[in-house]
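2.7 Reproducibility. Because tokenized structures are sensitive to small changes in the input, we list the exact sequence used for FAD dependent oxidoreductase domain-containing protein, including any N-terminal residues retained from the expression construct. No trimming or masking was applied before prediction.
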Amino acid sequence: MAVISSASPVSIASLFRPIRKYPTLPDLVITATSTSCLSSLSQPMNDRQQPGSKKRVVVCGGGIIGVCTAYFLAKKGAAVTLVEKSSVACAASGKAGGFLALDWCDGGPVESLARASFNLHRSLSEELNGPDSYGYRPLTTLSITVTESGPSSPSGSKSSGDSMIPSWVDGATRGPRTIGTTQTTAQVHPQLFTRTLLNTAVEKYGVEVVIGKLEQLRVEEGRVGSVVLEGGRVIESDSVVLSLGPWTGKFEMLASMFRVSGLKAHSIVLEPKDPGAITPHALFLSFHPQGGKAMDPEVYPRPTGEVYICGMSAEEEVPDDPEQIVGNPASIAMLKRVGKSVSSHLREGEARVKAEQACFLPCTDDGVPIIGEVPGMKGCYVATGHSCWGILNGPATGAAVAELVLEVRATIVDLSRFSPARFIGRRRVKV
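Resulting structure tokens (single pass, no recycling of outputs):
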């Protein structure tokens, strides 16, 4: 028997952190009866499942990729246990922008995945009442150049007067361009989307959720047989899906095969006094700060009454515990400067700062997600490396991995181009 171990330390927290009360979107809570607790470490997994009755799949990772995979596996009839070491959607899946685009990945290896996933988002919204449950809505998306005004400049006066620019965007702007329509771009609130999907998977399809740290995979004769958690609990399985995001590199078996680095991205969430004035326009900016280089932040109004602003990214070492991630003060300050330069509605005194945060996006060396069965290890699958497109590509990734694991005909997307086997020869797999 081979035992494959992770070296990163344990972090155990509650399943969900409290969700703020929003004016239009309800709170989402996993019921206690649907959650397995770590107090039962010595108990066997899934007593209700008899061997052979259903394929037993353990999905490791409670971000958007893991939750989508668990959802579609369970919907297709698998007995699914989702293992998350901290709390569901606690990292990038809870702090991302939630922007969706149909055709922005066209011409690259992710084109088919992105298109399939954009359409799946629409279908899921119809199925799960997305507009009310997690803020799904189509958007008009604009590219705009914004110049930071000096302290003596009056706030609230456009420099271009272009009718294409929404009325609430009243800073020094020019060169607006429509780069997405309500047919090709949309948004979700990523944390609410992830949790809505998991709630449905638990309540409708019987997914178990376990908060615990993945310690080992046990492998016999080249096939994965069980998952071992920190503390000793063993979860027997027929297949395992590793959706560890930027923490992929903390798991030795995967790190020995390919590199997944973490791109630290910062964001703030503002709550303007007059949210009704903010129209559903996503803004991709060329921002020119005083005394600094141009940068490319993004601004996403949400139907919750919030405005999300992100940018200021840099590659950094990923901490072991997602709870340890904090934003760089200078980056947060710059995003506030972006907000007040874009709109008088977003300046200090007119908008309350609800969150100052950072998260890590999982990036691969070739810029392509890694999705597929681990070479030389039957029943072990990986799904990671989606970079800034994780929320967009989560549904199609999860649905396609479910088909792969359950060995049914692929109908979502051909995953061969995403296979981890493409790294064979570059690094040696340690088993």
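The first helix runs from residue 64 to 75.
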